[in-house]
Each structure stands twice: as structure tokens, then as C-alpha cells.
Amino acid sequence: MEMINKNNKLKLFFKNSENMEEIEENKIHLIVTSPPYFNYIDYNNENGIGTEESYEIYLDNLEKVFKECYRVLCKGGTVAINITNMKSRIKIEKKSFLYPIVPDIIKIMQNIGFIFFDEIIWVKGNANNGALKGKPLFGSYPYPPTPKILDSIFENILIFRKEGKRKPMPKEIKEKSKLSKEEWREYTKGIWFIEPDRKAKHPATFPIEIPKRLIKLYSFVGDNILDPFAGTGTSLIVAYKLNRNSYGYELNSEFKEEFLEKFNEYSQKTLF
Description:
Blueprint: E1 2-6, E2 10-14, E3 28-33, H1 55-72, E4 73-83, E5 86-87, H2 90-93, E6 98-99, H3 101-112, E7 115-123, E8 154-161, H4 171-176, H5 181-187, E9 191-193, H6 209-218, E10 224-227, H7 234-241, E11 245-249, H8 256-267
Parallel strand pairs: 2-11, 3-4, 3-10, 7-9, 10-11
Antiparallel strand pairs: 1-2, 4-8, 5-6, 7-8
Helix pairs in contact: 1-3
């Protein structure tokens, strides 16, 4: 198993996150992640989640990972999942419909034992930031009754909690973790307008502003942060920069080089 270890504050394991045996029970305080989409984006990984033969198997595999997340998460800990409903592909499914990924993940998480705590809508700027670059001519255009709205420009960020209470934090740690009034006002809005990351080589990298906000809202300095679908390690690097400890799992070791490049670049910058 390949592994990257940065000063024992950031650990990235290149293996399946269905078994996170490297992390003991109740160790993690916050999980920030964006699972692979079902059979839609090429992650250059034939055996990973998102490449399953059926949607049902995809959900089953996600459930295995989230059960492990429940095991490693402390009482009162938080999970933030960035995901969206995915549209079918006419060439493959032979008909047009939405895969209800968002409500299905909510059901999975509740069945595991998580509390559905909150929800944030991430708006990616404007119509040209959707998957199809703002192209409007689909469905029965320009006539009713079946316009096809393909260019989705928003995603969901689902917030879950594990029942129980966290251990009280010392006043010194609470003060170090305090948000400014401006941050609190902006971050606690139910809709976030944030431009997507178009520079990354990874096909579905979210911008650093999203894990930054989630980590500052839901964790303290020194907390342990986990991303079970780490990709190129955006969440881990942001946690590292915010003086948290981070753990990540990524099945595709080909992202190792991009992670190291990103880490070396961001470690020299004042990001926040």
C-alpha cells in the first residue's frame, strides 16, 4: 500500500476506503468529502466506486464506505458530503431521467445511524459553469412539453451528525478556532456562490473555498479531518493549512503526483 505522510499531520493512503483500519474508532471529528458520481465521469479507475454495472451496486458500495465513516467518527462529529443528482445518458440508459442520488444518500446515512442535520446549496457561478457550458438546445426545443435542463449549475452539500456530544474544548483552542463576523455571516448562508475549479487535472475537483468553509465551521484547531474519497487531496491540504490533522483515502495512485504538486504549491502560499 502506497502512503504519503507529511509531518504526521497529513496522511494519504492509496487504497479502498471500505476498510479504514489505519484509523481507530471515534478518532475523526469531521469528514469532508465528495463521492464519485455514478458511471458519469472517467476517473481513470476501472474498479473504483462510480464504475459499477448498476446504480444499486453503486449505492451499496457507498454504504460500505459510510459505515466505516460512522465507525471512525467521534460522538457529535460531523459529515459533509458534496453530491448532486445525476442525469441519465440516452446512449446508455436509452431514456431520460434523474438518478436520485441526493435522497438515496440521505436514506443510507440515516439507516446507518447518522442524523440529517443541515443542507447547503453550492451554486457554481453562472450557466456557463455547468457540465455543458451553458448549451440550451436540448429536449423539445423550442416547443413544449419536454425541455431538457441539462446544464445544472448547483450541487448539494449534505450535513450529517453522529449522535452524542463532543468532549469540551479548552478556551484557548476555541479562541484559535473562532470565525470572524464576516466569515460567520457568509458561511452560515444556505446558498454558497463559489466558482468551480477548472485548473485541476482531476475530473471533479471542488474548489478550496468549499472545504475551507466546512472545516472552519465544523471543526476546531487540532481536530482530525477525513476525506474517504480524497482525489488529489484538496480537503486534506486545506485541513493541513488550517492547523488540523488530516487523513485521506484514494484508490487511484495516479493522483499522487498531482497531490504532491498541489501540496508543495499551497504549502508555500498564504491561502486564507
